[in-house]
Design goal:
Layout (H helix, E strand, L loop, with lengths): L4 H13 L4 E3 L11 H15 L3 E4 L2 E4 L8 H12 L4 E2 H9 L4 H10 L3 E9 L4 E9 L4 H13 L6 H12 L12 H12 L3 H21 L3
Antiparallel strand pairs: 1-6, 2-3, 3-4, 5-6
Helix pairs in contact: 1-2, 1-5, 1-6, 1-7, 2-3, 2-4, 2-7, 2-9, 4-9, 7-8, 7-9
Length: 223
């Protein structure tokens, strides 16, 4: 049985790390950080590799397992990779999966677990007062347990593949900055690379983020 463990943990870290929560738009969707969906895409791909449903073939990913793995989100990703007839790189997949906004399904799952709450906030402006809806993570100790694992990995303790992958992906999509403020950005980058290596999933996430930023610049002229 599989489960989108890393994606769930990354989403929880991102939401807990946002001190003011995420603003929920009129469409009912929260305004999440720009790098989060690429990060979640990388986490889903890494999870499927770890459980043996996908295999790395050079820079490409191939499906090696048929049938469900036990998680609806992972099953959808695996089915999509299985249907692709041409070899595709991990970065190519991260870009496509990020476009599916995986945070939506992830937040729905957290809500079902009681891990997300929302409330309305009155915000005073110069001309009028408006109501803003925000979503927050329910503090239940899960975030602290995840951060302890990542900190242990940074400190050089022996860590499993999921923890190292999560650390590398969280760094690639800048989620880790809220938790390791005792380290400068350069020191954190160096330490992550020392313990997690040049992780393929993190490279895919970085490629997907770069692709999104290039498209944004092309459309708007600047970041």
């Amino acid at each position: 049985m599989g489960r989108a463990v890393m994606a769930d943990e990354l989403l929880r870290l991102a939401l807990c790390g946002a001190g003011d929560g995420w603003v929920v738009g009129e469409d009912g969707r929260p305004r999440v950080p720009s790098g989060l969906d690429p990060g979640l895409a990388g986490a889903l791909l890494a999870e499927l590799v770890i459980i043996g449903a996908l295999r790395r073939d050079g820079e490409c990913l191939r499906a090696v397992r048929q049938g469900p793995v036990g998680d609806a989100v992972l099953d959808a990703v695996l089915a999509r990779v299985s249907r692709e007839t041409r070899p595709r790189t991990a970065t190519w997949w991260a870009i496509r999966l990020a476009g599916d906004t995986p945070h939506v399904a992830g937040l729905a799952g957290l809500r079902r677990q009681g891990g997300v709450t929302e409330y309305e906030q009155r915000v005073r402006g110069l001309l009028r007062t408006r109501t803003v809806r925000r979503c927050f993570a329910v503090e239940n100790g899960a975030e602290e347990a995840i951060v302890r694992r990542l900190r242990a990995a940074l400190d050089g303790e022996r860590s499993d593949d999921r923890t190292l992958a999560l650390l590398a992906i969280a760094h690639a999509c800048r989620v880790d900055r809220a938790y390791f403020r005792d380290l400068s950005r350069r020191a954190l980058k160096t330490r992550v690379r020392e313990v997690a290596g040049d992780h393929w999933a993190a490279k895919a996430v970085a490629g997907a983020i770069n692709d999104a930023e290039v498209l944004y610049v092309a459309a708007n002229g600047s970041l």
